[in-house]
Amino acid sequence: MKIYKIKTINVHLLLFAVLLVGITSCTFDEQTDPNRPSLEGILSNASINQLNNLVVGIESTMRNSLGIQTTASGTMARELYLFDADPRNTANLLGKNGSTLENGDFYATAPWAGRYRCIKNANILIQAASNTGAITDAQKAGYVGFAKTIIAYELIEVLKTYDRARVDVADENNLGPILEFDAAIAEIRTMLDGGLTDLNAAGSTFAFALAGFDGFDTPSSFGEFNRAVAAIAALYAGDKSASLTALNSSYFDLNGDLKIGPKHVFSTSSGDQTNPVYKGPSTAANPNNGDQIIVHNSWIADAEPGDTRVSSKSAVRPNPTTQDGLNGTHETRLYAENISPIDLARNEELILVYAEDQIGNDNAQAVAALNVIRNAAGLPNYSGATDDASLVTEMLKQRRYSLWSENHRMFDLRRYNLSNTLPIDRAGDIIYNVIPVPLTDTQTN
Known about the structure:
With 445 residues, the protein is mainly alpha-helical. Helix content is 42%, strand content 9%. Strands 1-10 form a two-stranded parallel ribbon. The chain has a two-stranded antiparallel ribbon with strand order 2-6.
């Protein structure tokens, strides 16, 4: 069995293509058309309406390529197969016959470009809010605190997939270097703290509306999301003490609703997106149902009897299916319909972060948190050994089932050096645990 962690030294600059509401050309005239304002005009003298359109654009581009990132990492982590017409989904991503991950293929370029388009929009918002005279200092702080938090969240998602990130991208003509994980996560944590400072200076209300942030749409409540992201970042940096501190200022609640937290929202409205991870169920009349996310057999076989996460997130197919030497009996039911929301970071994940923070610090508290997750899934209290290693195993198992097909498993195994425990589906397959940074012909690092 071979495990490869692929890295490249180049980065794709097309990621800085900007999706902005009201901007329809890459050429900017000296005269400002009030119906189609130039980027230069927005950066120097934006109205509140233009700033708010930028917020809409940021929320929209957060969802770009989310489906590709989720299914690619889920395939590599042997959570699922994506059975569709593209052979790379069952070949390259699983190292079929020693095949490699290409830094010019869609699974490398699309998620990177999608995350950085959002980051670009957020950086434009920071610059525009800082340069306009149309808003108060408190309103400016709200825009900037929001943007910094979103940038940090997006960069964490980049790190989980690529193990590296370019953090300094505010000036596309003077990009900072691509940083290795430790250096990047340190900068992200600093950015989150700066964003919280801005949010604390933003007064009681934002000058803009948010979609999917119900209950987290004021500077104070959005600050709780900032601290949730900070807790996750601190955990990934190995700073459990800081993670616990941040959790205490977030919406983390051991006794609360596991589903609470901001979400990506979708609709069938013209110009909007539907949930990219949703797949319609197969039926007896249509047993093959075209493209489908097939649950990896090990996820079914390794589950504890009675785990309701299995029955709620998957269903037995009318007929077992095979493709490219792979097979499965179950398909996804993770999302009920094509406009179901996707969580950014819900309380269930934060409880699992808390459990991980407590391992090696207060193992009794770790067990208590894990029992919250187990009980919610219809399972009895944990009865295994309570040494650190045993609790790590249990914690990772609960993350595996609670966060299935949500772009966590590949990174969880990588950070614990457990990628070699993944099953090999076909003779000659290779385990990859990181996607290569996209290639560019205009910039090297």
